[in-house]
Amino acid sequence: MSFLEQIKWYPGIGDPSFLGWFTVVAYGYVAFLCYSVARNGVYVFTQGVSRQVNLWGAIALIFVALAINKQLDLQTFFTATAKYFAKKQGWYGIRREFQAVFIIGVIVIGFSVLVGLLFNYRKYLWSNFLALIGLCFVICFIVIRASSFHHIDRLIGTKIAFIFSFNHLLELSGIFLVGANALWLLNQRRRPKQKPTGVENSQ
Predict the structure, then answer these.
(1) Per-residue pLDDT tens for 165-174?
(2) Residue range(s) defining the domain that contains residue 178
(3) In whole angstroms, what is the distance from residue 34 CA to residue 30 CA?
(4) Helical axes 166-188 vs 18-39, angle rounded to 10°
(5) Angle between helix 18-39 and 49-72 (nearest 10)
(6) Helix, strand, coil % (nearest 5) of the chain?
(7) pLDDT by residue (tens digit) across 22-68?
(8) pTM of the prediction?
(9) Is 197 domain-assigned?
């Protein structure tokens, strides 16, 4: 029996709903915007160009990975694996305590990473603030969702209107922040200077 059969996890589409695919498209579109910011960094940023280009390039790659993960639903693999070892090692009965500690740890680490990024990019905060907040928010949300904590699952699964749930609202909010920041930067970019054309020598 393979390990996947033991943990009872099989690859599949994580969220085949309209909003699920919409979120994938949103990740992809914002990843493209982030790539555009990185590619046009010399025209977008006035200082610390290389550092900010690297930041936006990294965000683009992360969002591509999150777009793929959205439908592969790899966090359920993590959940199934944790459940398997919890049962095997005999601490499945107190899993709620571990999940609570895990969620608190994610929040603390996420906040610490955000503070670290804000401090590290403090000189360029005005141009990256929304993106840094949105990035940390999305990653923390996905990791917390992977914890499969019953009360958290019930909360984020609550319907707000029609097919719209807190799950979609929270995830799309982080994506929106990054996308809004990228669009603002692209709108602020300077036009490349035209090279002067040579004057042909008259014969």
Answers:
(1) 777 888 899 9
(2) 13-77+96-188
(3) 6
(4) 20
(5) 160
(6) 75, 0, 20
(7) 999 999 999 999 999 999 999 999 899 999 999 999 999 999 999 98
(8) 0.81
(9) no
